[in-house]
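Q: Structure tokens for this one, please.
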Amino acid sequence: MTFEQKEIYKSDDEILWNEWDPIGVNDVAPRVEYQSYVPEIFSMLIQNRSDKEISDRLYAIETETIGVIGSREHCLIIVKKLIEEKNKNAPQQRI
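A: Here is the predicted structure, written as tokens:
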């Protein structure tokens, strides 16, 4: 994994923990609560999957895996933040 990818992975973990938090436990649960989802979401981001695909996956995790009432709108907001952070950490192309 490159330095940039490590930074993207760390930001994915932070965003999922601090902002996605579908069960609202980031102030009381162990820090690892959502870390099992990071590799898949990171992989989708690195593969440049669409925001809709990634958002649909987060929604499926909320509703099918975790079993809460999900929010497609919130998932899309989170994915846009993930993509923004990915773009900040992506290597700059030289002209």
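A few notes: The chain has a mean pLDDT of 92. The chain has one domain: 3-89.
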